[in-house]
Fold this protein.
Amino acid sequence: MSTDMSAELEIFNRRESEARSYCRSFETVFTKASGAEMTGADDKTYIDFLAGCSSLNYGHNDPDMKEALIAHIADDGIAHGLDMYTHEKARFLKAYEDNILKPRGMDYKVMMTGPTGTNAVEAAMKLARKVTGRRNIVAFTNGFHGMTMGALSLTGNTGKRGGAGGGSLSDVTHMPFEGAFGDDTDTLAYLEMMLDNSSSGVDAPAAFIFEPVQGEGGLNAASDEWMRGVARIAKKHGALLIVDDIQSGCGRTGTYFAFESAGIVPDMITQAKSLSGFGLPFAALLIKPEHDIWKPAEHNGTFRGNTHAFVTGRVALEKFWADDGFQNDVQHKSAILTTGLQAIAEIVPGARLKGRGMMQGVDVGGGETASAICARAFEKGLIIETSGADDEVVKVLAPLTIPEETLRKGLNILLDAARDVTVQTKVAAE
Amino acid sequence: MSTDMSAELEIFNRRESEARSYCRSFETVFTKASGAEMTGADDKTYIDFLAGCSSLNYGHNDPDMKEALIAHIADDGIAHGLDMYTHEKARFLKAYEDNILKPRGMDYKVMMTGPTGTNAVEAAMKLARKVTGRRNIVAFTNGFHGMTMGALSLTGNTGKRGGAGGGSLSDVTHMPFEGAFGDDTDTLAYLEMMLDNSSSGVDAPAAFIFEPVQGEGGLNAASDEWMRGVARIAKKHGALLIVDDIQSGCGRTGTYFAFESAGIVPDMITQAKSLSGFGLPFAALLIKPEHDIWKPAEHNGTFRGNTHAFVTGRVALEKFWADDGFQNDVQHKSAILTTGLQAIAEIVPGARLKGRGMMQGVDVGGGETASAICARAFEKGLIIETSGADDEVVKVLAPLTIPEETLRKGLNILLDAARDVTVQTKVAAE
Amino acid sequence: MSTDMSAELEIFNRRESEARSYCRSFETVFTKASGAEMTGADDKTYIDFLAGCSSLNYGHNDPDMKEALIAHIADDGIAHGLDMYTHEKARFLKAYEDNILKPRGMDYKVMMTGPTGTNAVEAAMKLARKVTGRRNIVAFTNGFHGMTMGALSLTGNTGKRGGAGGGSLSDVTHMPFEGAFGDDTDTLAYLEMMLDNSSSGVDAPAAFIFEPVQGEGGLNAASDEWMRGVARIAKKHGALLIVDDIQSGCGRTGTYFAFESAGIVPDMITQAKSLSGFGLPFAALLIKPEHDIWKPAEHNGTFRGNTHAFVTGRVALEKFWADDGFQNDVQHKSAILTTGLQAIAEIVPGARLKGRGMMQGVDVGGGETASAICARAFEKGLIIETSGADDEVVKVLAPLTIPEETLRKGLNILLDAARDVTVQTKVAAE
Amino acid sequence: MSTDMSAELEIFNRRESEARSYCRSFETVFTKASGAEMTGADDKTYIDFLAGCSSLNYGHNDPDMKEALIAHIADDGIAHGLDMYTHEKARFLKAYEDNILKPRGMDYKVMMTGPTGTNAVEAAMKLARKVTGRRNIVAFTNGFHGMTMGALSLTGNTGKRGGAGGGSLSDVTHMPFEGAFGDDTDTLAYLEMMLDNSSSGVDAPAAFIFEPVQGEGGLNAASDEWMRGVARIAKKHGALLIVDDIQSGCGRTGTYFAFESAGIVPDMITQAKSLSGFGLPFAALLIKPEHDIWKPAEHNGTFRGNTHAFVTGRVALEKFWADDGFQNDVQHKSAILTTGLQAIAEIVPGARLKGRGMMQGVDVGGGETASAICARAFEKGLIIETSGADDEVVKVLAPLTIPEETLRKGLNILLDAARDVTVQTKVAAE
């Protein structure tokens, strides 16, 4: 390790809060990044299978976005304009309308919430309660929706909930996500029974919220039937349907929204992570026009509408979503990913594939094994993380733009790492 | 209005949620901004007395930050790295330590929360509850701390609270801020009585949170005595002291932190708005080391540590806070501001000055008058907004870097606007 | 109707709150009652198959209790002594120890809560939270535990919950009671899965609370296996087990406690209704000695320990529970009840039996039919009520001391009433 | 101590929960009671200055009530009839209408809640929220309203609140009672300011609830002006006014209701304690007819309308409230009480009188002194207890029917006890 890097690591220990996390798995100081690769202070280059947890679907420093952003800044374009009207916001909205809404026959109002996923979720919760006059919101096992008190009440993870320090996480009913009781049990039937029974103790809900593929919860992918089932039950009970597409959206599963194949029309959709295209903080809430009953500033915030993100986000929409090319490419790479992960699953006893599209991984049976594989992979030049209630899933979230060769290279590293760990475990067991 | 601007305004009406707010006061489309001025699509230039609600203390597109940011992007510097260690984060922390903490003899851990003020506040609330094992938090009348459910529970404004749609805003006790009962009543005595009485029904608090100058609440400035009193009462009752310096910090009142003159040492300090220096989304929570008991990722989020903001934020620290020059300059301009506002107060019957430093305004007695003055000012080329429970305060939040001449020019416009409105009102009354 | 009775009914309309309920089904003014019969102001006598909702297990005005109570009053025995030590309280506790605890090998402290079932439930909730330091309590579908805010949070019924007027009913998770998904689904497996999954969003519970037979919820009787399963899961998760035996206890199901056959040892048991033996307000909470961590007066109330109820309650214990005679008699009558209800079930299409012991009824498929049967029965001289989420169960809660002849007579009236309603319905359908 | 008494004390230790309280101050076993005196198992007779905490305003075993109750029981009158119509309920309501409502020009519906004060309070809270559609309820410092979760949320005492074990006590704002800041501070002005300020964070209240004289909180007596002020503020803010007259009502302060002198008309009034006249469990909620929007059984309970209490409660109304005689007598005795307490206050340094009517006491400056005085008084044959946040008030709650001679005798014992303790303290200090 270089002297400089040691000094820098020291300042993190000295000054950065214990809450820091990813840095603990990847003990280096990163300096540059491009496409699907990141470079450390030691000039070592890593393939990035984490991609900002799906915030970098178009890779690091996409050249077109980069160019547009530099031009904007150089030209004294607005950096911060609160939620005033700006030229760049207009252009972004136009591009969103033309490339996303119109081709899909969708009609939504766009709410620029604070530039974090949790803020978009909080806005959705508040609005659903305002619209329906009800308080209860149904969320699902293994769901992850954010860390502020509203979003945290929806989040299933015990450790995260413990972070509330005893603050009330109320007005939410947690129900089983598809597959939560194993494949044989119909979780929709359960959901319906609890809501149909007027003495179940589950209050009439304002909304149902789910992730089409649970990113933090272990890459649990809801089937189209299940998504349609939740939509039907929500409608039957006068509740709104909120799809949290923050991690699964922006092309991650092979279509722009992760629920497109189900043919459902959510009342609200949360977006963040890759919405800016460049990794800049940005979030939005799509709202069916009839539900857009906010009063001006009723939910506000300083950084609503990050203007730099409008610039890069617009370029992303125009570059990747004007036609089917990108989408088809993602689906092609998804097949490569499936094949690569199957090879890994074969060598880890009891392992099974999870997820769909470019949001897949391998459940290796336990958090210890998964962490060991990821740590070994990092040593070999691959950035990758775990997911799941017990961190039992090795999760691949490569940039969607990753070159096929790099994707295969990364998968090979992962296979090697898995092999190393499996062999080690066998040896240790003997 | 140009055709293009009409088309752009149309798309906002068609696609942007009704929650949008500032844009309603400033009906133009902004294209560029530099220093203390913003330019509209109609090429009209406005003096900016709003400054992103104190997010642009160093003005728009500061040339040094701009240069550094462009170089960073051009060089494929990290744009998004989750909370991994990056060279730019290390440099920012170093600059923060050298220019802010050390000179003030402060020892804090820095928590990179989600890049919004409300997220920093939520992190502080959660941590205070974890540290103390208590739930109640004491907040103050006219306090504004954010829109997510935790921060909203601290916020006093009825309209904002109504946005929760009936969701629970519990575990908070609202107490009178200094001056809330008029100048003659000792609000600290009240606070102390309620906490000393074991049968008051006010549960032992985890924390007290206040803004040194209430930005949204009407520019109510706490005296040093009052801040020290709250600190003393918090200590006596085993509660943490959280200072929300989001709007009042980063030099706004004449010192880096708005509580420096009081000589208090808060247990936690929230920062956001001008922390990036450039208007980019960025927030942090300062935590006394002994309270930094977070487990890794116990409070997390995708955009913790906006790397672009590290770049510009570092430049801001090095450029403006390496010595006393900037601070002295701000204090000098504050005096000019006071003089200018006094002139305005003299012509509006019953008006009085509020706030301190470069965070001053005039309470003109009612929201209608204040809005009329701001609207008239905008016609004359000045961007300015109201504040207060009834929007009764005309609030000046000019960039701290504003040239004196521009400041005086803006104040003159404001004086004219106030005169116009006062005359109009008199005529209407006759 | 006599003139006097008209005048009396008028005063109820004029002065008694709309919350009154049972009186609406039985439009007469009652004057006297003895054994299993009540007499109205019109001298008409009714067989009582309601028995104060199981508060009169030993019938009205049992002669031995009556004699003892009159002697106590005549002799200036204490009527009200707060929770001071009284001779009658000592005698009651001794009789409880000798006749209930010792023969069953049970060791419990007795807490005299306020003299209502809901108060005993509230005390149990509070204590479970104190003991465990946790907040969540698991309650079950169709459970009924009372109307004060704590107990109401456990209660499933939507209408009852609506009575809270929007007050928070938080810190409770509602889970499926046995059979809630039909006979084929294992509700224990569901319960276990939700608690085992650390990302289910169901917080670690302080306690589980259930009724062995759900009185208001539709006479759903838990099997021994299910009760043992809940006990096992509670233990595994460090939660207390609270059995709410208020309606099902005091011999109602054939044993003193309704859970005896399951062989479980609850951490707390709530008792009320028939505890006084005479219908007087009285409730108690049994607490395992190691959990009795209350500080003096930490849960108090004016009417803890109704002294008149100590007198009659002691007589009840000595008269009915000194040996197996009464218990055997109840089991014998339960068989008669089953036979009688089967006859009714046979003539109502789709009907099925519910409950066990002297707590049985017939699910007639809908609330309208059940209400019609009860109304017709009242015309014929039988007091009987419905139960269940949709009032679909005709519920028999006759005094356990009812003479066999009267029981058969009542069942015949019920059969006639069911026949009348069934014929009517058929005619109407044709 | 007799052998029998020892055996009885042993069973309390063995079987009664640690929550028991009053018995700890009065270490004897009581056997009989009549008028203003109680007799222990050791045949020692005590003057009762506690009177069931105001539940025995007419003394123990009033001969007329006793006779009526025995006749009722002997004649097989209804003991328990749920909330069915009974002859005795009709007679009680008629007597209440004739002797209480009509003479005072009051029009209220009577809700028979569960027979405890806390249940009446819970019903009032729920109904106020239903009527207004708001959740917040304003309660006052040192208020005591009960131990179930709703009522407990209104109660100020830290120890009592701690009994909730961390369960949520939300939706309540605690405000200063009259005199809470000392005599010079206008608590109504504070209350009004917090409610008038739309950014105070105090949500629009459903109701205000207060006790005219705070029984447990230290005999703080609200002035007529203060009660009128709260009534006015409640009306102005669209909130209901609930007066909790449980301890202060039924003649205790010299009029039937403790707020009569203020001329206010509460929207709801809670009654319990002395309502049955005989110490039997009984409570009621008076509701203005326009607010009686309960659905049948929306707030229910097994022991609503204790029939034995209807019998004795009716006799109490007819015997004591048919004319002014009793009321005048109570006022006469109140003067004697004041004089007696002044004598005590004179010998205890710093002592001062609290309360009004027959609800007076002496604040002796601290809980230790007060407890010592009460303990000494018990040794001398007087039952008396403390009150206040720190138990600093020696509280006299003698039966209103106490003979003057007995009252004077009791006061002399108290004076002696105070003298003993004062002398002891002086000696100890020297």
About this structure: Chain C has two domains: 6-62+325-429, 78-320. The CA atoms of residues 179 and 185 of chain C lie 7 Å apart. Residues 78-320 of chain C form a domain with the Aspartate Aminotransferase; domain 2 fold (CATH 3.40.640.10).
